[in-house]
């Protein structure tokens, strides 16, 4: 079979496979290997038709050029070298390895003992795993050439969603598109997003991923996707015709609707798991380069992720792999930004986290990456793992301190009013020290991880029994409340209160300074039945229902109304924190008597009431926002409007709410309710 091909030395760049000169060039990094082989497969992916030795080059790069060969060819690598687990060396030529730079994959992954390096333990496995592993597939990527929305952070509203769960039950989307990338860009789903003001979708992981073996053994799947197999290929289950260009088509159609695409990326660990994990890709090329190990125990992985292994971002080639992947998703696949799972790991070296870590510096100076949206999840379980506020500009950060204190406030906890006020106005105590502003805070109440918004007000305990871990998994400190009954109820008073509380959360989120992020289903009261860790629930627990009652839902319309207020008032677009001498904006805080709050008021532990005004002197527009988290009605004296126009009630979480518009009116503020009044709203739109 080898005489059908012309085999030459090949080029060391780019890594991976690249179509050139009527053939394909292959290059891989494996500096400690004694020999690397390219293996070609037939169209079925079952038969290995060629195994040919590659040539070693400077810097530990192996290369080869095969002619004739075209895009679509299936291949893998085998690497020979020392197999000594105690020394961290795991070379095993019997294991077919996925190209770390593969742009496409062919075939399914199947768990079997063939993937393991030692079988039984202590004995090097001689079993070929090729039948159970996807083959790398040669692709000829083309740069994304369509116009991008490029929304400013000040105009951004994020909708975090799962590719499958968002559309797989949507009645207006054709069956063959439901749960696929192209389902997300179907006109009916785009119309839904536009109907309540979404400017960006943030997709849970779309890189190729597999389910952990402990899940498949229980008949479950990794639904969320935080178990990456390859950093370049779109997850095949989300494709209709196994064509990776469908992802790009989705992006193009969302862009045409003025909606950006942010993807959740997992560069902190891979699916190769811990010391007892399989050999699938990186581990077989250079285990000690790609993964962090204990300094004097190369056989032990550092597990700052809780998933068994931790990517060694300090290594130049690993750093290159991550950066090359990021640029690929921007330049070729067209995405507008990234949310980095457990991002602290990407800024940690052996000496700890640093805002000047090589990765963060590399991104900052990269002419492609420093222009896209960068969002960190600023924590992990490693030493010094909590780093909220420590990332450098232009990074944005998930603000869990915002999330938690707002939950506690609407749970009617006492003694937190001052902290709530800080969060409402952009968390200056977290971000201002590093010369960043309120728009560096990604504010959210719920996300994929934890209770849904509907469950947050329906359950006080997690109910994760279906996950098969005796309800031990998932967070216990949820700051949730059930409004009187645990779980589903037909009691009209409880259901009305739950709806009102969901509106309270949404109005607080949208009218807080920072960038608001909504989790999918918040707009239609999606429930997971109290499961607050539905990572393995690839079923109706997680999938949005889209019943007739949920189309054009009350909450959807409420979000739209709240976002219209946000867009109309320029204070929410202001990129710096407001202070007492701000020339344009003024914020004032009031008691229920309508007088300015004093230090004594701020320290009243029993206070659960906040009223404040936001004045835009340039546009002569003011808002008055009232939050009553207490369980009693409060008679409130509205303060004098700072401009000549009287206060007009524009939105409330209370159903069918109405009040007098007179400035001297006493207003009855319902228990556990939120209110927005405006002066001169019709003149807004110039800022």
Automatic annotation (TrEMBL):
Residues 185-566 form the Glycosyl hydrolase family 13 catalytic domain. InterPro entries: GH, GH13_cat_dom, GlgX_Isoamylase_N_E_set, Glyco_hydro_13_N, Glyco_hydro_b, Glycogen_debranch_GlgX, Ig-like_fold, Ig_E-set. Keywords: Glycosidase, Hydrolase. It comes from the Bacteria. Pfam families: Alpha-amylase, CBM_48. Belongs to the glycosyl hydrolase 13 family. This is Glycogen debranching enzyme GlgX.
């Amino acid at each position: 079979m080898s005489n059908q091909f012309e085999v030459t030395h090949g080029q060391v760049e780019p890594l991976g496979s690249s179509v050139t000169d009527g053939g394909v060039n292959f290059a891989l990094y494996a500096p400690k290997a004694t020999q690397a082989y390219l293996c070609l497969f037939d169209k079925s992916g079952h038969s290995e038709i060629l195994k040919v030795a590659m040539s070693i080059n400077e810097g530990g790069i192996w290369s080869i050029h095969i002619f004739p060969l075209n895009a679509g060819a299936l291949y893998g690598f085998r690497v020979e070298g020392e197999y000594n687990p105690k020394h961290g060396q795991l070379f095993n030529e019997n294991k077919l390895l996925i190209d770390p730079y593969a742009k496409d994959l062919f075939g399914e992954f199947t768990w079997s003992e063939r993937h393991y390096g030692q079988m039984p333990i202590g004995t090097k496995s001689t079993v070929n795993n090729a039948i159970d592993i996807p083959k790398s597939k040669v692709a000829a990527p083309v740069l994304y050439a369509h116009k991008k929305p490029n929304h400013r952070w000040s105009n951004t509203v994020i909708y975090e969603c799962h590719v499958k769960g968002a559309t797989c039950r949507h009645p207006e989307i054709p069956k063959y598109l439901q749960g696929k990338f192209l389902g997300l860009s179907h006109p009916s789903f785009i119309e839904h997003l536009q109907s309540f003001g979404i400017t960006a979708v943030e997709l849970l992981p779309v890189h190729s991923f597999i389910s952990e073996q402990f899940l498949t053994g229980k008949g479950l799947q990794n639904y969320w996707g935080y178990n990456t197999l390859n950093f370049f290929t779109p997850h095949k289950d989300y494709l209709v015709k196994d064509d990776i260009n469908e992802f790009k088509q989705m992006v193009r159609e969302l862009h045409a609707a003025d909606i950006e695409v942010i993807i959740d990326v997992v560069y902190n660990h891979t699916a190769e798991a811990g010391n007892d994990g399989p050999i699938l890709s990186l581990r077989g090329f250079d285990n000690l380069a790609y993964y962090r190990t204990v300094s004097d125990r190369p056989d032990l992985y550092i597990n700052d992720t809780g998933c068994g292994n931790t990517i060694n971002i300090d290594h130049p080639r690993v750093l290159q792999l991550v950066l090359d992947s990021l640029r690929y998703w921007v330049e070729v696949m067209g995405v507008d930004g990234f949310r980095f799972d457990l991002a602290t790991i990407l800024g940690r070296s052996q000496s700890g986290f640093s805002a000047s870590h090589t990765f963060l510096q590399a991104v900052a100076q990269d002419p492609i990456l420093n222009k896209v949206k960068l969002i960190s999840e600023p924590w992990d379980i490693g030493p010094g793992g909590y780093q909220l506020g420590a990332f450098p500009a232009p990074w944005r950060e998930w603000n869990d301190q915002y999330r938690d204190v707002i939950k506690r406030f609407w749970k009617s906890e006492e003694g937190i009013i001052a902290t709530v006020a800080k969060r409402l106005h952009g968390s200056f105590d977290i971000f201002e020290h590093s010369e960043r502003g309120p728009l560096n805070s990604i504010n959210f109440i719920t996300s994929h991880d934890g209770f849904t918004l509907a469950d947050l007000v329906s359950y006080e305990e997690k109910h994760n029994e279906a996950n098969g871990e005796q309800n031990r998994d998932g967070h216990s400190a949820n700051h949730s409340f059930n409004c009187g009954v645990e779980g589903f109820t037909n009691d009209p008073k409880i259901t009305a209160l739950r709806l009102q509380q969901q509106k309270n959360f949404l109005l607080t989120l949208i009218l807080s300074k920072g960038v608001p992020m909504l989790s999918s289903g918040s707009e239609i009261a999606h429930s997971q039945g109290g499961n607050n860790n539905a990572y393995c629930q690839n079923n109706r627990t997680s999938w949005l229902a889209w019943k007739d009652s949920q189309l054009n839902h009350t909450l959807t319309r409420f979000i739209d109304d709240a976002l219209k207020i946000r867009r109309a008032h320029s204070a929410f677009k202001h990129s710096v924190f407001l202070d007492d001498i701000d020339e344009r904006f003024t914020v004032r805080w009031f008691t229920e008597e309508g007088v300015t709050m004093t230090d004594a008021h701020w320290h009243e532990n029993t206070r659960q009431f906040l009223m404040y005004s936001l004045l835009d002197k340039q546009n002569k527009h003011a808002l008055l926002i009232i939050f009553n988290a207490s369980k009693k009605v409060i008679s409130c004296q509205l303060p004098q409007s700072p401009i000549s126009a009287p206060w007009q009630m524009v939105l409330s979480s209370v159903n069918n709410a109405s009040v007098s518009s007179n400035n001297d009116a006493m207003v009855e503020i319902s228990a556990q309710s939120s209110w927005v009044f405006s002066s001169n709203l019709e003149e807004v739109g110039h800022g």
